[in-house]
Recover the amino acids of this structure.
């Protein structure tokens, strides 16, 4: 029988460690334990957290599984899975608000993090556009196209129309690769060129094109392709 957390020395309990040292000092299992709050019969919450991380491998895989399923067992029933999904959405909204308050022109990492959360759990290809004002602040995000598992028909004129609708000064586009490989295809390269030319005709800059494959992100701008 696992020792209950109340029997642990106070300075070893996850919540007390967070208060004393801050969240960055805690392990993934400790942070997960604080979120789960209680264990299950035969397992205290730390044992449960370690078991879940062993089962899924990483926090990202755990959250991804919760995003796709409403009941994962081992203490993660519908209520806990809903909490995990809500936590993901809160994270996405926090980053979205941050991008609205500061220029994203030189923040490819922040944009990449936002897009990873946006595409998480999507099993079909999706194409989105982020619209920025003259200061580089995010003013709108739209999913413009949704395709099959490996293809999404993207029409540059629709991206141009959306940019005009948002009165955007610049645009960042992105799509996901459900296959898990972020390397852009020949079609991705051709599309980027067509979008750059089409947006240039209305004096709107295409700042970047991201390809998101689960936890991996490819930036055209970072690779000198824009």
């Amino acid at each position: 029988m696992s020792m209950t957390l109340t029997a642990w020395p106070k300075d070893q309990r996850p919540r007390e460690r967070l208060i004393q040292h801050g969240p960055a000092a805690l392990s993934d299992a400790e942070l997960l334990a604080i979120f789960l709050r209680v264990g299950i019969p035969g397992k205290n919450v730390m044992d449960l957290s370690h078991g879940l991380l062993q089962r899924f491998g990483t926090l990202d895989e755990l959250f991804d599984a919760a995003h796709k399923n409403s009941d994962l067992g081992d203490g993660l029933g519908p209520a806990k899975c809903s909490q995990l999904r809500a936590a993901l959405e809160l994270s996405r909204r926090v980053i979205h608000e941050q991008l609205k308050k500061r220029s994203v022109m030189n923040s490819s990492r922040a944009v990449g993090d936002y897009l990873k959360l946006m595409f998480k759990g999507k099993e079909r290809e999706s194409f989105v556009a982020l619209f920025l004002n003259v200061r580089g602040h995010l003013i709108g995000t739209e999913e413009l196209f949704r395709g099959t598992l490996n293809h999404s028909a993207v029409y540059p004129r629709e991206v141009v129309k959306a940019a005009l609708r948002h009165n955007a000064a610049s645009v960042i586009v992105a799509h996901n690769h459900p296959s898990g490989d972020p390397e852009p295809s020949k079609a991705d390269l051709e599309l980027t060129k067509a979008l750059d030319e089409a947006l240039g005709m209305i004096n709107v800059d295409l700042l970047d094109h991201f390809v998101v494959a689960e936890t991996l992100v490819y930036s055209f701008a970072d690779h000198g392709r824009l």
Q: What stands out?
A: The CA atoms of residues 71 and 77 lie 4 Å apart. The helical segments are 14-21, 28-36, 45-56, 59-68, 78-101, 108-119, 156-165, 186-200. Residues 78-101 form the longest helix (24 residues). The radius of gyration is 21 Å.
